Amino acid sequence: MGAPRFQILYRITPDDSRPIEAHAKDICLEQTVEIPADCVPGPIWEAGIVGQVEAITPCTAPSRAFDVAISYRADIVNNSIPNLLNVIFGNISIRRGIRIIDIRLTPEQLHAFGGPGFGVAGLRERLGVFGRPLAATAIKPLGLSVPELARLASGYALGGLDVIKDDHGLMDQPFHPFKERVARLQEAIRSANAKTGRKTLYFPMVSGRFDQIEDQMAFAAAEGCAGALIAPFLIGPDTGFHLARKYRLAVMAHPSFSGTHFHDPEHGMTPAMLLGRLFRVFGADISVFPNAGGRFTFTERECRDLAIAMQEKLGDVRPGFPSPAGGMTIERIDSMVTAFGHDAVFLIGGALMRHSPDPEIGARAFIAAIENAVATGKAAE
Question: Is the pLDDT of residue 294 over 90?
Answer without folding.
Answer: no
